[in-house]
Every structure is written in structure tokens, then in C-alpha cells.
Amino acid sequence: MTLLRVPEGASVPPATEAAPLVSLRAITKDYPKVSTGGDRLRTLAALLFRSRDIPHFRALDAVDLEVRRGESLGIVGENGAGKSTLLKIIAGVVRPTSGEVRVRGRVGALLELGSGFHPDYTGRENIYLSSALMGLTRREAREKVDAIVEFADIGAQIDEPIKHYSSGMVVRLGFAVATALEPELLITDEVLAVGDESFQKKCIAWLEGYLAQGGTLLLCSHSMFHVQTLCRRAVWIHHGAVRMRGSAFDVTREYLTYHEEKTGAGRPAQRAAVATLPHIESAWTERADGTAAATFRQGETLVLQGIAFEPDDRAPVLLFGFVRADGTPVYGSHSDEDGYEPPRVAPRRFAFAVRFESLALLPGKYRLRVHTLDGLRLFDTFEMDFVVTGETRDYGLVRLAHAWLPGRGRAP
Amino acid sequence: MSSPPASAPLAPRWGWLLASFVRREVLNRYAGSATGLAWTLLHPLAQLAVFAFVFSHVFRVSVPPGYPGTGYVTFVAIALWPWILFSEGLQRGMGSIAANAGLVRKVAFPHRLLVFSAILGTCVVHCAGYVVVLAALRIAGEPIRLAALPMAFALLVPYMLLATGIAAFLAALQTLLRDVEHVLQVVLQVLFYATPILYPASLAPASLQPWMRWNPLGWFSERLREVLLHGSGPVAGDFAIAALCVIVFAAGLWFFERLSPHFEDFL
Fold first, then answer.
1. If I label B126, which of A144, A363, B41, B70 is the partner at 20 to 30 A Cα–Cα?
2. What are the residues of chain A with a beta carbon less than 8 Å away from any beta carbon of chain B?
3. A109 vs B107: CB contact, 8 Å cut-off?
4. Structure confidence by residue, pLDDT tens digits, B77-120
């Protein structure tokens, strides 16, 4: 079995040359511990005279982070790990105790939906107030108010005091205001979790469009599905420090594993952690003759082989995808589409294979990803890198079958 | 640093936010109450009525000789409204950070706008009340020179700058030390009687007079009477006091801005 797992970054060309939108260096944040009046007095003196000698607890410890324009970064971690503090520092709500923060561009922060709202005001009045808080001018707000009302989709109640709104409606209004700001960097802290299914879909669709247009997103969420859907990269914050960073799939997988291990601590079985979720146990690439390989000539046959684990003992739905080393998607497909069911080779284990006859990929580095799929949820990602060799002067990703002919000389 | 923009005192892009805050500040006073804004006028009127009854009918205080033809009510009213402006502005300004803790914790914006809007909101409400009361007294035959109102309001500008500076200082302090508001209540009570509002400065004991000269509130209340009853124009002392007020304003704001990035730690 060949497991080719190149460490993140090794096969990926250096990121775009654009200067980072967010750059944090060694960010440390201490919160003062103030339980007695004496503590408060001492803290006050320390703050005024810029000394550091006060009782505190450390919320963030030497965190480095860089976000480039057009990137989407997920932030995951347990409650109290320091995620919100980190977002607040980037949003400018909190000043770090030490370290360097550089944030460029227009920042829209949704740290809490509806935090600028006043319950006695109507939805429309609140739109003006919270767009003022986000730094819009009166004219900008007036131009955008109709679009905001339409996006929030609250109907006639927009002119009623928001204390009569349901919490979901408040959330919709808050998100609608943030969309109108058109920020270069959007920071959201667990805001997709509120709101009903259809509004969540609307928000995700909006975020996808925003990312497609070159927007930059910092998404803090406990929903690994949202992180996987919306983010290319992710950072795992653990006890105030970065525990892991990498592709969103890798980080969320490790994070879920960590949780499984934590709840199932003491369970003897190896990898008991993931045993409750469908996943790819192993996968590899081989030649037509059945020998494992990671280098193929252009036009050669590539066979993807693997074993999927499915806890319910039902044939799993599989998904494969080819991407170029820089992440550009080339092609992907579901086993569903073809009505494929892999054979069961052992209890809860299914062996699958996909054959790619005369590989049309142009020479270069590629990555093949395999996932198990349950409805819309991607449970797992298994990646392997391979190289296609050959000599060609063609451009692009794949060779399309073609033939050069004598021209006819006129339009039909 | 990506801290809330704290450099310019009032960048144009925050002007509208300040206006929205002031509007909210004013509207909040009557939101939910039936009689609404009338209360903000009734409260000082009731105070005025009590003082008028106690001092002119029980203690039989007479209006000092310097103000012929002036009733005691007018004499007190001219100084009482500015005092209410000052003390209420101070209290609201001081509490403005705690009252908006939700915003301070979650949104990046210059916190000083909250103090400013508390003061400005108080000004809007009580300046309107001041004009109404002065006009009513004039109609009742009191020798108030309404033409001197612009000069009176010109005096109120440094007066409110003083209140803003102190309020900013107290607001920052209050966020870190919760005792400040209790201390302020006591101080305001002492200050009310130490300031020539219910009495003219000339009535105070001679031994205290030099000390009372140093109370800027006393200066304003005497000057407002001179302006509104005698039609006095600006004097050199006004500029000295105004300079002092500007210094207090700047110092209070400096202190506030120094602590403002840490507010979130304590809310």
C-alpha cells in the first residue's frame, strides 16, 4: 500500500505575491484578573503607567497568523480556546497585550449578530444605526437600505420595533447589514449557527459569491461542515495557541478526531475515534498492471484503489476529485451518479476502485482526493499526490481529443 | 495597530454615528413612557417649585439688591438649568460605557462617542427646557433679556466642555473602579450647595469667598445671571475660564483614550 502524503505546502507553489490583509505576529493577550477592589486599583495603576505586573490569565499566547487577499480561513477550537479573542483583536475591538497587528482594508466584523441593535427601534431604524456603527456614511446607508431589507426578507415587520422579532429575524437583519458593507475582510464568529435552514443556505450562497469575487473571509465556527464548505485553509486554536494549521479538510479532521478521542478516552480500540464516522481507511494509486505508483506517463492508465469504512455496513457513496497542485479543480465525480456500489470485503469495509483509461492530464503535479459522502456531509478526505510526466507543448490541464483539418473558408 | 481609530477627535466618517447616538440618547428618554419628553421638563420644574417654596416662603430669602425687579424663582431658574445640565451630563456621560457594554465588547468604534452623545443628548433636552422656562418667565413679566440668549449659550459651550472632560475621566475610571458613581453622587450634592445657585455669591461668608471664586461652576452661574438680567457682554474672566475648561476637556479625554483600549477587559 502506498500512502503518499506530502506535507502541506511542499507541493503547493508559493501563495500569491499580494501583501497579506491580516498579519499577526506573536500576539499575546492577557486579561486582568480583577476579583477585589485592590486588584482593580493595582490594574488601573499598571495600565496608566504601562507596566505589565498585574495578575492576569493568558487568553492568547504568541499567535502568528497571516491572511491574504482572497483567502478564506476557518478558525476552529473548543469553547474558551481564544478564538473569539483572536477575532476581536483582528476586528480592532481588543488591543493585544503584546505583539504586532496589521490589518489593511475595510473590515466587516460580525462578532455577534444584532449587537448594535436597539429593541425599541424598528428594523429599518436599526439598519441605519448599525450601518453607522460599521462605519458607513449616511448616504451609503441610504443607498443600501433597500437591498438590506430585501436580503433580510422580514416582510412588513421591518417597520416594527425589533423587540417583536424572533431571534432568527434579528440574525437575518444583522447578516443583511453586514452583506451591504461589502467589506474586503469579513470576520464572522459563529453567526451561521443561528437562523433557519433556508437562511443559512442563503448566507452560505452569499459567502460563496463573496469569496468568488475575491472577498476574504475569517470564519469561526463549530460546524465543520461550514468550515469545509467555505474555507480552503483552517487554523485550530487550542488553549490560546495555534495547535494546527493547514488545509481546511486536514484541520477539521484532526479536530474531530481530537474530540472523538476526548469523549471516548479509555476506549482500547486503535483509531476508535473515527470508527463511528464513515471514512476512507486507505487509498492508493496504481498502474494498469496492479503495481503501486505515484508517477504516470501522460496517456497511461491510472487506477485508484481503496477501502472505505462504513459503520452502518451499507455501501458508502464515494466521491473523487482531481486538483492541480495549486488547488485548481480539474474533475470530480460521485459514485452515486453511476449507481456504483463497492463490494463488501469485510464487516463494515468496502473495497472500491476507479479506472482512468489513458489519462488526459497534461504533465505536472496533481492531487487526487477521495471522500465518503453522506447526503451533503463530507466526512473525510483522503489525499494522494501524483505526477504526470511527458513532453508536450500543450497548455492547460487536460488534453482534449482533437484533429487539425483543412478549413472550409466560409461560415455556415 | 488596528485599535479603534483614536487619533482624530472626530473623523468625518464617525460624525453620523455620533448623530445617531445623540438621537438615540434623546429618543430613549421618552421611549416607552406615556407623557414622553414632558417629564424631562417637569422634573426640573418640580425642583424649581420646591426651592421657590422653601426659600422664598419658609426661609423668606430675598433677592439680592443687585437684581432689582427680579423674582426669586427667576434668580434660581437661571442657574438651576445649567446645573442640571452639568450634573446630569456628568452622570450620564460617566455611565455611558457601562450602559453600552454590549457595543463596546463587540464593535470597533471610538468609545468617546458614547460620552459625547450622553452629554449632547442632555444638552438638547435641557437647553430646550431652559429656553422654554426663560421665555415663560419673560412673559410673566420678569426682566429677562431674551436678546442675551446667544451670549448665555456661548457661555454654556465651555461649561459643557468642562462637563465632557470630567465625564470622560469618570467614565474611564468607572469602568475600572465601580465605586466612582457612588462617590460622584456625594460630590454632586456638596457641589450643589457650594455653588451659588440658590443664593448669590455675595451672600456667602467672607471667609469662604476666596475659595468659592475657584469653583468654575460658581463663575458660570453668576455670569449667566449678569448676562440674562443685566445684559452683560463677554469679560476677560470668561476667556480665562474657557481656557481652563478646554484644558480639563483635553486632559479628561487623554485619560479616557489611554484606558479606552482596555475597557473590553473589564466589562
1. B70
2. 31-32, 34, 37, 40-41, 43-44, 47-48, 88-95, 101-103, 107, 109, 111-112, 115-116, 118, 120-121, 128-129, 132-135, 137-138
3. yes
4. 999 999 999 999 999 999 999 888 888 888 888 899 999 999 99
* Same-domain check for residues A374 and A255: no
- ipTM for the whole complex: 0.74
Can you tell me the distance from the alpha carbon of B88 to that of B102, in angstroms, rounded to the nearest whole number?
Answer: 23
**pLDDT tier at A113, thresholds 50, 70, 90:** low
* A72 domain residue, yes or no: yes
Burial class (CB in 10 A: 0-12, 13-18, 19+), A35: exposed
Nearest-by-Cβ selection for A135 from B13, B262, B265: B13
Domain count, chain A: 2
Residue of A48, A89, A133 with shortest CB distance to B17: A133
Chain B residues closer than 8 Å to A138 by CB: 16
Q: Using CA atoms in the order A90, A94, A100, A106, what is the torsion angle rounded to 10 degrees?
A: 40
Q: Output the nine-digit C-alpha cell for A29.
A: 493577550
Could you read off the pLDDT of A5-48 as tens digits, one per residue?
Answer: 333 333 333 444 467 888 899 888 888 877 777 777 777 777 77
Mean pLDDT calculated for residue range A146-169: 84
Q: What is the mean pLDDT of residues A55-75?
A: 88
Domain boundaries, chain B: 28-266
| Residue B195 DSSP class | S
Amino acid at B96: S
Per DSSP, what are the bridge partners of residue A383? A369
How far separated are the first and last CA of chain B, in Å rounded?
22
How far B115 CA lies from chain A's nearest CA (Å)?
A: 15
Which chain B residues touch A128 with a CB distance below 8 Å? 20
- The model's pLDDT over B7-16, given as tens digits with 9 standing for 90+, comes to 333 455 688 8
DSSP designation for A398:
B
Residue A120 lies in a domain: yes
CA distances A371 to A15, A25, B156, Å, are 26, 35, 72
Residues A142 and A96 in one domain: yes
Domain, as residue range, for A355: 274-389
Per-residue pLDDT, A376? 57
B2–A135 CB contact, under 8 Å: no
* Chain B nearest C-alpha distance from A32 (Å): 7
Q: What is the dihedral of CA A401, A396, A296, A284, to 10 degrees?
A: -110
**CA-based radius of gyration for chain B:** 19
In this structure, are strands A364-374 and A377-378 parallel, antiparallel, or unpaired?
A: antiparallel
Within a 10 A sphere around the Cβ of A389, how many other Cβ atoms?
A: 11
Q: Do A48 and B259 touch (CB under 8 A)?
A: yes
Nearest-Cα residue of chain B relative to residue A118: B24
Closest residue in B to A136 (Cα–Cα): B13
Q: Cell digits for B73?
A: 424663582
Q: Which residues of B touch A91 (CB under 8 A)?
A: 2, 108
Does the predicted model carry a pTM greater than 0.80? no
C-beta atoms of B262 and A47 within 8 A: yes
Domain CATH code at residue A116 = 3.40.50.300
Question: How far out from the chain centre does Cα B189 lie?
Answer: 14
Residue type, A360: A
**Chain A environment of B105 (Cβ under 8 Å):** 93, 115
A382 forms beta bridges with A370
Nearest to A95 among B3, B16, B32 (CB): B3
Inter-chain touch B107–A88, beta carbons under 8 Å: no
